[in-house]
């Protein structure tokens, strides 16, 4: 299977609930290599830009406020079939609909505050990664 990269963000609720370590442990246990990682805090502008595709939707303002409400941890992850496998690991957007054992089913409180982001395509993963990281921030882990 082709090696892919996905951009994830441990959202502010994940950090507030002291779940950073547990979620990273699950990600690594599932076979993802972390190739870039940092702790940062989004402004309303950067959060709004990241989620620009949702602009105009009823939840957009709440989403921007939530994503800028505290520190978050963006990471670039690498693995064969990373995009689809990571979406399976985190579960459906709405934790009430997420499969048992997924990160969102286990830890998320609501459809808005759902612990973690995952890119929905290789192309969007590249665009999203560029929001947080430059090429020089990406570490080769296999060689
Ligand atoms: P995903 O994060 O699973 O790719 P979307 O791209 O549809 O989901 O939405 C982006 C984020 O916006 C979600 O993770 C969630 O935080 C928030 N969101 C999506 N739909 C809703 C909703 N109906 N009400 C509140 N927040 C929402
Ligand atoms: Mg999405």
What features would you describe in this structure?
The protein is an alpha+beta fold. Helices cover 38% and strands 17% of the residues. The chain has one domain (3-40, 72-137): 2-Layer Sandwich (Alpha-Beta Plaits), CATH 3.30.70.141. It has seven helices and four strands. Strands 2-3-1-4 form a four-stranded antiparallel beta sheet. It is globular. Bound molecules: adenosine-5'-diphosphate and magnesium ion. Adenosine-5'-diphosphate binds at residues 54, 59, 63, 93, 111-112, 114, 117, 120.
How are the strands ordered across the major sheet? 2-3-1-4
Low-confidence stretches: none
By DSSP (H or I, 4+ residues per run), the number of helices equals 7
Mean pLDDT: 97
Q: Kindly report how far apart the N and C termini lie.
A: 19 Å
Give the domain tally.
Answer: 1
- For the record, the CATH class is Alpha Beta
| Structural class estimated from helices and strands | alpha+beta
CATH superfamily placement: Nucleoside diphosphate kinase-like domain
Helicity range: 25-40%
By CATH, the architecture is named 2-Layer Sandwich
CATH topology: Alpha-Beta Plaits
Ligands present: adenosine-5'-diphosphate, magnesium ion
- Rg over alpha carbons: 14 Å
Q: Tell me about the biggest sheet?
A: 4 strands, antiparallel
